[in-house]
Amino acid sequence: TDEKADLLNDTLCILFDSMMSNPGDIDPKILWREFGVRYHEAIDPYLSKKANEGNFARVEQVLIDACEQESKEKLFGFYMSFKDYNKAQQVLDGIVRVGDAREQAFKDIEQIWLYWKQLDVKVPLTDQEVQTLTNVATMDIPERGFARGILASTMGIRIWDFDEPIEPRQAKTNDNIKDKIVELYPNPAKSDIVIGLNNNLDFSGKLLVIDLSGRTILSKKLDLSKGETTKINISNLTNGNYKAILIDNAGAIVGKSSFLVTKK
């Protein structure tokens, strides 16, 4: 609530003032870990106000003293807000290093996203990094959003989540298409797949096969009677993960499924 937020902000301000006036009384690492990291949004305006009042050096030193790995982002944001890009770059270099440490850095998706978003560093991704980010982007974890953002902003690769509910403003129905699965076999496939609907309904429309970057690899018109299946040639597809989507003649998605292509 607003009342709790105000109380939290007041508490942080009191603690921060106490720490600045009596630096030996409160361990800044404890303060920052317990308050600044968890509730940094509440104290951001206060830090900026203190710095703008002429306390830049003192605020900077407090942040540096408190700056273990979990709070380096705060110090980075502080320098960015005052357009001290050189110091901001130095802080980021301590978190994410371009070069031999990039593989380790990519394990921290959020910091990598920060690197590109804030400093707009145009460093081409390697094939391995693209694959790593693609793997994260397709996992059912919160970090997938960061991975998708990096792929889209740096490589122009879009990762679509076909399992999320359809927004009512974007389609004629808000039904979750998880329950309308396309039946595919064999899976993994090599040169052909057999496709049908498991809801025993007629279908008239088209089949789209989309890769993980969101590109349409195959488009084919389909007409299926109840319980009918059809064989689709996929010999032109390379090894990888794909989505099969059935779209009816009205433009609505009525079914989808994932499949893997493996060729020796």
Explain how this protein is built:
The protein has two domains: 2-155; 177-261, Immunoglobulins (Immunoglobulin-like). Strands 4-3-6-7 form a four-stranded antiparallel β-sheet, with no helix packed on it. A hairpin with a 6-residue loop joins strand 1 and strand 2 (192-197). 20% of the residues are buried. It is built from nine helices and seven strands. The protein has 264 residues and is of the alpha+beta class. The radius of gyration is 26 Å and the shape is elongated. 43% of the residues lie in helices and 19% in strands. The longest helix is centred in the N-terminal third of the chain and has 26 residues, at 40-65.
Strand count, sense and closure of the main sheet? 4 strands, antiparallel
Give the oligomeric state: single chain
Beta-strand content bin:
15-25%
- Order of helical and strand elements: HHHHHHHHHEEEEEEE
Mean pLDDT: 67
Let me know the number of strands: 7
Strand order of the largest sheet: 4-3-6-7
Q: Which geometry do the CA atoms define?
A: elongated
Q: Assign a percent range to the helix content.
A: 40-55%
First and last CA, distance: 59 Å
Radius of gyration: 26 Å
In terms of structural class, how would the helical and strand content be classed? alpha+beta
Low-confidence stretches: 36-42, 97-101, 165-179
Number of distinct helices:
9
| Overall structural domain count | 2
